[in-house]
Every structure is written in structure tokens, then in C-alpha cells.
Amino acid sequence: MTSTIEPEVGKSRRRKEDERLITGRTRWTDNLTLPGMLHLAVLRSPFAHARITSIDVTEAKSAPGVVAVFTGKDLDPESAIGMPCAWPITPDMKSPRRPVLASDTVNFAGEGVAVVVARTSAEAHDALEAIDVEYDELPVVLGLENALAEGAPLVHEELGTNQNAVWVFDSADAGTGSSVEDAIANSEVVLKRRFRQQRLVPAFMEPRSCVVDPTGNQLVMWSATQIPHILKTMTAATLGLPEHKVRVIAPDVGGGFGGKIAVLPEEMMATLIARRLGKPVKWTESRSETMVAAHHGRDQIQDLTITANRDGTVTGLKVELLADMGAYLGLVGPGVPILGAFMFNAIYKFPAYHFACTNVFTNTTLTDAYRGAGRPEATFGIERMMDELAVELDMDPLELREKNWIKHEEFPFTTVAGLTYDSGDYEAATAKAKELFDYDGLRREQRERREAGDPVQLGIGISTFTEMCGLAPSRVLGSLDYAAGGWEHAEIRVLPTGKIEVITGASAHGQGHETAWSQIVADKLGVPFEDVEVLHGDTQSSHKGMDTYGSRSLVVGGIAVMKAADKVLAKAKPIAAHLMECSEDDLEFEAGKFTVKGTDSSTSIQDIAWAVFSAHNLPDGVEPSLDSADTFDPENFSFPHGTHLCAAEVDTETGRVRLRSYVCVDDVGVAVNPLIVEGQVHGGLAQGIAQALFEEAVHDEGGTLTTGTFADYLLPSAADLPSFTTDRTETPSTTNPLGAKGVGEAGTIASTPAVVNAVIDAVRHFGVNDIEMPLTPMRVWHAIQHRTASAGGLGSEAGGGLGSIDASGGAQ
Fold first, then answer.
1. Average pLDDT, stretch 419-447?
2. Cβ(512)–Cβ(17) under 8 Å?
């Protein structure tokens, strides 16, 4: 029997959740108001490193509307364990205790030292002015190499070092490849470069916020978080609370990008104070607090060595990283660079590979996961190196990549880093991207501009990338000493009228889960898309889950939904056979109906739902329920890939960069909703391009964040970005039954090196082989002036001062 119902999977449906989100008919954490609720405001240190010699809160306690004032010493006895870190990457990793509020020493500018509780938010913030704190300033250490220098000031004196941990992977030791030192010694080309990954602010739309109500049978916390289930467990463990008495709700959350993956001091602070006072409390940060106190991302120095033969065959890759942890360790912060360890080799067949990362403490806000989490850093490094190698070998950079990438017929392929890529077709994605981009035509135009001495030069940037999505197989995480698993849970409830409720442990913060999950279930059970409701974000209704990050929602959480739907059908089948008085073997299911093969006799899933509800006529021994659940733990990551091509025009007289065109062809496996995929790619491109050209968190020599507002920290608008040309190829993943690969971070991972490669390509004939991100007009202009002056060409000044210009040293 042929179905006449159009499949939902693959349909570009508008998101069902958008109506309430766009019109504001929804519930954010900050618009919650509970009876008797009090408001919190945090006093933050203006110093990056100082001893607290005294805190006088007398005047603040008598300020209008103030109910209480707490310092670190007031809260310390109930929070002795400190903020959790879930990823001890080495047995000897140093993990200093981070208190809820600093009581003795502040270690970064923005660390909380006191909290006011008042009847209104305005009164709480006004009273902060009345708190008198005396500080004894201590030496500040900023910069990764400065922190490791002999005699450097220590962020935590008790540790005796600013080195947090050293993590090493070597293909020769692991048995996945040969010795990289042998490759360096024996290869015809050895190329070294240093790249800087600047510090970034996640800059989500909705600032962090939490409300804690201790007045019921359970302590209830509402939080603008990506991880309600993890937050519940960590709150119980951190504060010594019985977990079954804690309920966490993530209502509609306005963006996260990894920035809401933390377990926050403020959430623990609010919980302690709510319990102490016996009243609900709310804390919502200002935007300026977000900038200084929420975690930052990236912040690495990458020293890379690539080896090859003169025919372009790569022979080895050596990666030495310094990664800035900030003053404390985030929930998964130490492991973020380690995720990149498995991606530096990218799509290429390196026979030898060595990776070493040193994590370092500095007197800055901590770093943790930011969209892509380690993988953008790795992709940037290897894609920049492939361009540098192509120049050294006088090869077209796409030709060099194709010579070394894994061919489509070689999948599955086990890489030098030990991962098995299950499927892909880099040739197909690149061929389509080249056609859409007019690669050959733009190369001709580039040559013409150079020959004409045009002041506006054209550069072409390439990024052929892959990433590992679907974080992650639990056994793999266990082998990397991560504290939790990588499974995900889902339940399906079939209501008496045949409507469907899906309960998912993957909690959305803008990704469109409610729409995509409805499409999956509509196809599986043959019910209308509109008849599916998706519930998430409440640990009472969704009692287990591992939450949302690492492009895992669809390829782990969505698969749990699929498998739960399969179990619904398995439960329904014997009931259908009983109702139609036939054998189960004679039934087939399609388009929402069980049909007796070769006949018109059928019964719908809705009919079966009502029969189960009434329970008047069920087979003996069959429970009156179709409700089903599944916990899916993937056997492998998924590996989306793509080819991104960027054409950038650089005004050599001003340094201004204009992106003329941007083409990307991504392979994300099976797309459940192409419209959502398109949106995810567009958003990711904007963030990756922003790193290349606009964003940077900068501290002055005293450790004060000088880019603490959006007037100083530049986020691009639509006017700053080109119209993107996007397309897809499709090689289904073999690691999950849907064939999906993940898309949430692809644009961010691929776009940064594509843009930087384009700008460098435009000015390389001036002798420029690197410019530190972001590539501001001043930095681009300085790089051109410095190199042309050094070569005796145009430009009368060296333009000095930017260490990034010479970051590659003399390695040619």
C-alpha cells in the first residue's frame, strides 16, 4: 500500500515555537514573579587580584528596602565544596576551590564579594553603593606566556604554579600513526607557524538569570540554562541537598552558545540565600555583568608544525597549545582544548601526529565552552596551515587539500587521532561550492587586480572542515575522564484522543527542537504534525537527560525520540492484531494505520489509543498503555563536513575588509527541517566571521576588561555581513538510524579560517602571512605597512607594536 501523506522529515516547516517567542507570549526567567519574592544584587571586585582586608555592610543593611546583606564568610560554611569542575583531564590537574563569593582573595575583576537582598531589584542595586570594601592589591598575571614565566605572580599561591594541567596525545604511543619527530627529521618541507585565538564573549541575547523558591515540598529553581538536568545534580552535590528535593526548570531560554553550560556561583548563592531566608529570591545580571562575570571562550596560543614532501603529500602534524583557563576552572573548561585534539588532523590523512596542551591560570574571568568548543580552534589552526603549506609549495590551496583528504571511497576511515569517520564526500561538497562560488573566475579577477596594482585587492579563503558532533559515546567520555555520560533520554505519551506528548531531555535555547521533534514523531507514528506537543526543560516532567550542547540534540536526543516512537508501535501492534482478530505477522504499519496485508481492514493509532484508554478489549496480559521511553547512547560521534569559500576585498590604503561573497556547502547528513538547518548555518557563520573580523575581549594591564559593553565589544549586524550562498550535499551518517550528523556549530567552526585565509590571500604579495584576529582595519593596515616597509617597498613606517604581525617568526 502506498502512502499519500507527505513525509515531515525533510520538510521546511516554520518553527511552531516562534509565534510565542517572537510575540513575547512566553516565560523567561526574569519575568517570573513569585509571592513575597526578594531580589539579589552582587557587588563585584574592581581589581583582578587583591586581598580583601575588610567588608563593612552596616550602611547597606539599613538602606531602603534591604532585607539582608551577605558576604563570602556568611555563605562559606554551606558551600565549602566550591563550584564544580566535571572534567579533570589528568590525575594531577590542579583544581582550586572557587567560592560562591570571595571572602579572602579576589582573583579576577568581576568576582563577587557581597550580595544585597532587597524587596526590589532597584533597591538591591542602589544598596551596593553603601558597601565599603578595603582591598590590598596583589600582582596581576595576564597572558599565557607571562603566566608560565619564571618568577611570575601566582593566581593561586597555594598551588605553587600557574600551570593547571598538561595533556598529551601522540600517535606513535597510541598506535594510530608514526612518530612526528621522525616526520620532522625526514620530510622535505617543515613549516612552523604561531596563531592566536583571541578571547571571546558568548554574548547571548538573554542575560543569565535564576529564581529559587524554597517554600514548597521541593526546592524549585528556574534558570536561564542549557543544562537543567546537570544543574539539578550539581546543585544537590555542591550544596549537600537531597537530589529528589530539587527541581530545576529552564523556561524559554534566549540563546546560550555554550555560555549557559556553567553551574554558576550565582545559582548556588541564590539557593543558599533562599533557604536561609525561607523566601523566593531572584538574581538577574546586567549586560555589563555578563561581560565580566559570565565565562569567556577560546583564548589560546597555537604553535603548529606541519611536514610534507615537495609533491604536497603531508607527512606529519605537531600541535603545541597554551590555553587560558582564567582564574578558576569551569564546568568543562579544562576539556575544551582536548576536544580540539581530535580535530586538528581534520579531513587529512596525516601519518604522524602529536598534540600537547598546557592549561594555564591567569587573573581573568574563566573560560569554558563557546560555540564549537575546541573544534573551531582546531579547524582554524589546520586550515591556516594548509594555506601556508600551499604557498610554500606553490600549489593551489584547494589542490593541496584534495591531494591529502580522505576520498569518499575510503570511508569508514580511522584517523591518526583514533576516531573513525563513518561517511563523507569531500569531493562532492567542494565541487558544488566551487561552482556556486565561481572559483576559477575569481582567481582570474584576483590576478588582474594584482597586475593592475588596484588599491583594493581580492583574496580567496578556503576552509574544508569536519567536526565531531553528538557529544558523545559515554565510554569515550569515560576514557577522557569526563564525569558524566553522553546518552540522552526521551519519552512519548499517547493521550486517549491520539494526541502525542514528547518529553525530551534535550532542552532547547533557540534551536527549534519542538518543531523538529514533532516532525520526527509525526512520520514515525503517522499522526498530524499539529498533534504533537514537545515538553522539555523541567526536571520534574523530563526526569532524566544530559541536556543541550556539542551539536548533540538531534543526533542523540532526536534518536532517543525515534526509538521511543518505535517502542510505541511495538506496544500498539499486538493490540491492533487483537482488535482486528488477526496475527501480528499479518500486519503492516504505514501512515498512522495498522493494515491487514492484502486487505482494506485497518485501525489507526488514534483508535488504538482510545482502546487502550478504555481498556475494555485488550489482549490478556497486555498493559493498558502505549507510553514508551528510550535512552540512547551513541556508539560513535557523527562527522558533518563542508567546504566554505570566501571572497574578501581589502582596501590596502585603509585596511578595510569587505566580504564580497561567501559560499558554503555543508553535509549534515539527513536534514529533518532544511529551514532550521539554514538558520543554524546562518547564525553560525555570523559568529565565526565575527571572530575573524570583529570580536575580542581585551583586558588592560591591571586586568580590567576594557571591552565590557557593546559599545566597545563589537558584534556584527546584518549590515556588516554579506548575503550567504548556502547549499548541502548529503551522505547519511551510519552511526544513527536517522542518518543525521548535527549542524549547530558547523558555520562557526568553518567560517573563521575561511575569512582569515581570504584576507591573508589578498595581501600576501606584500609579504604578510598572518594577522592576529580580529582583523580590524588598523591591524590589516599595520601589517601591510610593516611588511612593505621591511621589504623596501611602499609605506614609510614599519607600523610596529603588533606582536601578531611577526607571530610566525622567520619560519617560511
1. 98
2. yes
